[in-house]
Amino acid sequence: MRVIITEHARKRLKDVRQDKITTHDIITAAKGIPGRIPTATRFRGFFARSGRMFDIVAKDIANGRLVITIIGK
Q1: Best CA proximity match to 13, nearest among 52, 71, 59
Q2: At residue 1, does pLDDT exceed 90?
Q3: Residue 46: is its pLDDT beyond 90?
Q4: With a threshold of 0.90, does the pTM exceed it?
Q5: Please, are residues 67 and 26 in contact by the beta-carbon 8 Å criterion?
Q6: CA distances (Å), origin 37, targets 45, 51, 52, 70
Q7: How far apart are CA 67 and CA 27, in angstroms?
Q8: Strands (E), 1-73
């Protein structure tokens, strides 16, 4: 499955709240969500390699899975 990360989500990775969350962590989390996501939905409780917890908002589009934003904890 192809994972597309929006510019907004990439920009959020530079914030202090999302510190130590990598693009690889986001792709792994998005691929780990089973089923189809027809509308933008928040998924909670993912862990980055660094141990930092985060949530993602994602939805499925024709090209793959779109990650709209990341929320660090």
Answers
A1: 71
A2: no
A3: yes
A4: no
A5: yes
A6: 17, 26, 25, 16
A7: 9
A8: 3-5, 41-47, 53-61, 64-72
